Amino acid sequence: MDFSFETAGRILFGAGRRRELPELALSLGKAPLVLAGRDQARVEFLIQALSERGAKPEVGSVSGEPSVARVLELTELARSAERDVIIAVGGGSVIDAAKAVAALLANPGHPLDYLEVVGAGKPLKNRSLPVIAVPTTAGTGAEVTKNAVIDVPEREVKVSLRSATMLPPVALLDPELTLSVPPDITRATGFDALTQVIEPFLSSARTPMTDALCREGIRRGASALPRVLRDGSDLEARSEMMLTSLFGGMALANAKLGAVHGFAGPLGGLSHAPHGALCAALLPASLRVNLRALRARGEACHLERFRELAALLTGKEDAQPEDAVSRIEELTKELRVVPLSGLGVSRELALRSVPMARRASSMKGNPIELTDEELEELVTSA
User: Which pLDDT tens digit goes with each residue over 94-109?
Assistant: First the structure.
């Protein structure tokens, strides 16, 4: 047995823990850059508290998934204002932007010098500026991952900066921050969280530590997602989904993902559809095609893993591998998941994404190498 495990330096979890942010920030630096999404009201308490303590916070915004151009703008803002710590309060896009900016401040150059797939892929050798990651959605797990997803519009793709030097020193998760998230975003981010505990659980790169996280995350997420969509004010269900997201982030950073995320990146770049909504649409088809391929190739150990997944999803110890597919299909119907066609993904775009998905880093964790025909079936049936 041989594996390694990397995650954020400290993880703070609990309702109301956002109140610890000012002191945490000032323990890491004296000149904070606060990044937030469209709703700047979320960080007013933080800006006021930092100002009262003598800090002069600079504030930046991230609207939508960060592009190369926006990352460069924010990096210049942080550099010119001589910032020494970044506090990211928002969804995965805000946290990814913060991690990218922190990495570029410590590693001079252009993002394309370091980006995977479409860039030079140079290593990020210097440790990033400290980032305190504070998620306000329960989905990406970006607060504990070592990558930042960046939109490259001219190449119609989303790819990552990736290095263990990008792991945030502090991840602070306060489920109360998710209580105001509307149902459509709760649905999309929730399915992303669930996908990110399912794919590492099935991954060819899984480890005993990621298995433990995924088992707990699958059980909690499958139960909590319908509850939180029935009642968005259910703090217990919100907390369960935030835990699922956290476990998924820790797992994917150490055991890779699979075909859902292999397609989600290229399709996001081609269609500009939200990442979580793409994952929700792709998950049933990915499970169905992968299970059929594993049966056809006689992969007994992976089939047993599907059987365990089915037991976790259904709560039935005698569940069969196909029950995993059926339960996810039921969940997507019950929670009104929109198919790819409803997200602006035409058949032509779907087929264009196949070679891009095959090259995606996320595809490396898929439990079996799928043929082009199987990949085409997966994406066109989603």
Answer: 999 999 999 999 999 9
List, in order, residues 6 or more apart from 351 with CB less than 8 Å away.
376, 379, 380
**Tokens 């269900």 — which residue?**
237
How far, in Å, are 119, 203, 275 from residue 365 at the CA level?
A: 22, 5, 19
Phi (first) and psi of residue 268, to 5 degrees: -65, -40
**Is-contact 113 84, C-beta < 8 A?**
no
- Give the three-state DSSP class for 162: strand
Angle at CA 362, nearest 5°, toward 357 and 363? Answer: 55
The topology under which CATH files domain 183-381 is: Dehydroquinate synthase-like, alpha domain (1.20.1090)
**In angstroms, rounded to a whole number, what is the distance separating the alpha carbons of residues 276 and 210?**
21
* 181-229 pLDDT tens trace: 999 999 999 999 999 999 999 999 999 999 999 999 999 999 999 999 9
Residue 181 near residue 91, CB atoms below 8 Å: no
- Angle, helices 372-381/347-359, rounded to nearest 10 degrees: 130
Q: For residue 80, report the phi and psi dihedrals to the nearest 5 degrees.
A: -70, -30
Helix 208-230 / helix 321-334 crossing angle, nearest 10 deg: 30
- Which residues have CB under 8 Å from 329's CB, separation 6+? 284
Give the global pTM: 0.95
DSSP per residue over 315-333, as a string?
A: S-TT--HHHHHHHHHHHHH
Task: For domain 10-178, give its CATH number from 3.40.50.1970, 3.40.50.450, 2.60.40.1190, 1.10.1760.20.
Answer: 3.40.50.1970
Reading phi first (left if > 0) and then psi (alpha if -120 to 50, else beta), residue 14 is in: left
Whether the Cβ atoms of residue 292 and residue 282 lie closer than 8 Å to each other: no
Helix (H, G, I), strand (E, B) or coil at 102: helix
Residue 128 is classified by DSSP as P
pLDDT of residue 155: 84
Q: What is the DSSP letter of 336?
A: T
Residue-range domain boundaries for the chain: 10-178, 183-381
